[in-house]
Amino acid sequence: MEDMRDYLEWLERRGELIRVEEQLSPELEIPAFLRKAMYGKKGAVLFERVKGYPEWRVAGNLFTRVETVREALGVERLEEIGERPLRLLESLPLGLSEKISSLGKLKEMSSYLPKVVRRAEFTKNVVEDEPLNFIPAFKTWPKDASRYLTYPLVCFSDPRGVNSIGVYRVMLLDGFTGVIHWQIHKRGSQAWGDYFERNEGKMPVAIAIGSDIGTLLTAVSPVPYPMDKLLFAGFVRGSGLELYRLPSGILVPANAEAVIEGYVGVNELGEEGPFGDHFGFYDRPSERNELYPVFHAERLYYRDDPIYYGSVVGKPPLEDAVIGKAIERIFLPLMKMILPEVVDVNFPEHGVFQGVAIVSIKKRYPGQGKKVLNALWGTGQMALTKVIIVVSEDINVHDVNQVIWALASFVNPERDVLIIPNAHTDALDPAVPNPPLGSKLGIDATRKLPLEMNGRTVEEVKEDPEVLKKLEGLFKKYLGG
């Protein structure tokens, strides 16, 4: 699928797209409809008429189900996507014979590389007078401070030349300015800090609206720095992403519905929020004295008959829960590369993705559970995960009842519960009194080895295999198996 329009047509053929003909407002009405549809598992929505914005249509709930996303990306398992870059790394040649045999891998690598093209559909139309007011951005909740871009593809390059594309909400202040909410651990904030240290007044930034489903997923993914996210988009899509270079030099997806070209003032900060976030509470950065960079829009480019894509958040499970589960599967191979003992991971959708993680490991030595806990907290975006539970490999991390049994059977709180005070946490966490400084909870619910039990052993009950064999006929007769 080349762009968002191809994806919408594909969803409609599958019966997973609702077309709404009635005119609705992007302020509260469209977001309320999207939440109702997502809670009811009704599929994606395309609003044909948007109050106050006759040029636009609006799409939402594009991440309808994990299975839909998987089929759209053309893979049997989402883990295959995370395995693609690892497979290429494993086959790097050492000598001449290896180089010759690896030509096929090099060809495969080239198929994922981005390509800069000379034309893009979104360049057909330009708005320079109050460009941000031209966009049907959402007001998602009644007490939100303003209208927001809720799934903007924020494109930029840091001073080292690493290209990034991220999703950071943008609060619109007026027709020319907005505030970008990129938290301190995000790539955008890191690049902004580099520009600040160099005392450069402006950081070129562009915001793309809409793209193919693979690029949309890449933008919100925790790709390890300094891997180029525009390259990683090729791994997710299964083919290289076509890019268009704006006059500012920023590369953006050529298949975008619209693009806002502008810059962030390196020495200019503004208040942002409140905003009803994915925990289901209003996030109020001003209460914790947080300020964020101000974005200046210089012009807006857009396709004929443009389609705006916005996401809505609130108490789970909404669209971000599907995104989180897809990312969980894609990045499991990368987690296994860093920690080979990891077997599986589950970020429960009601755990708001970064709130709770359950990880199973192949345990070989005493203390390995705590080793994994600490290692995970030191790895990428899992540094923000508040609660991590580690279980043994025979426990299905996706079966909450099995996890509860492991907690009840293998956890001695004095020995197996780890609390980390004064740690960096998710700034959006409503339970933390002084965000982003909070605490973390780790639970080692792995089966304990004798050394961890002071030599004591416990034996788990098992059926007698001879008795089971004897009763096979009766099982089939009376129990159906």
TrEMBL record:
<dbReference type="GO" id="GO:0016831">
    <property type="term" value="F:carboxy-lyase activity"/>
</dbReference>
<dbReference type="Pfam" id="PF20695">
    <property type="entry name" value="UbiD_N"/>
</dbReference>
<dbReference type="GO" id="GO:0008299">
    <property type="term" value="P:isoprenoid biosynthetic process"/>
</dbReference>
<comment type="similarity">
    <text>Belongs to the UbiD family.</text>
</comment>
<comment type="function">
    <text>Catalyzes the conversion of trans-anhydromevalonate 5-phosphate (tAHMP) into isopentenyl phosphate. Involved in the archaeal mevalonate (MVA) pathway, which provides fundamental precursors for isoprenoid biosynthesis, such as isopentenyl diphosphate (IPP) and dimethylallyl diphosphate (DMAPP).</text>
</comment>
<dbReference type="Pfam" id="PF01977">
    <property type="entry name" value="UbiD"/>
</dbReference>
<comment type="pathway">
    <text>Isoprenoid biosynthesis; isopentenyl diphosphate biosynthesis via mevalonate pathway.</text>
</comment>
<keyword id="KW-0285">Flavoprotein</keyword>
<dbReference type="InterPro" id="IPR048304">
    <property type="entry name" value="UbiD_Rift_dom"/>
</dbReference>
<keyword id="KW-0210">Decarboxylase</keyword>
<dbReference type="InterPro" id="IPR049383">
    <property type="entry name" value="UbiD-like_N"/>
</dbReference>
<protein>
    <recommendedName>
        <fullName>Anhydromevalonate phosphate decarboxylase</fullName>
        <ecNumber>4.1.1.126</ecNumber>
    </recommendedName>
</protein>
<dbReference type="InterPro" id="IPR049381">
    <property type="entry name" value="UbiD-like_C"/>
</dbReference>
<keyword id="KW-0288">FMN</keyword>
<dbReference type="InterPro" id="IPR002830">
    <property type="entry name" value="UbiD"/>
</dbReference>
<dbReference type="Pfam" id="PF20696">
    <property type="entry name" value="UbiD_C"/>
</dbReference>
<keyword id="KW-0414">Isoprene biosynthesis</keyword>
<dbReference type="GO" id="GO:0005737">
    <property type="term" value="C:cytoplasm"/>
</dbReference>
<keyword id="KW-0456">Lyase</keyword>
<feature type="domain" description="3-octaprenyl-4-hydroxybenzoate carboxy-lyase-like C-terminal">
    <location>
        <begin position="322"/>
        <end position="445"/>
    </location>
</feature>
<feature type="domain" description="3-octaprenyl-4-hydroxybenzoate carboxy-lyase-like Rift-related">
    <location>
        <begin position="117"/>
        <end position="316"/>
    </location>
</feature>
<feature type="domain" description="3-octaprenyl-4-hydroxybenzoate carboxy-lyase-like N-terminal">
    <location>
        <begin position="8"/>
        <end position="84"/>
    </location>
</feature>
<keyword id="KW-0464">Manganese</keyword>
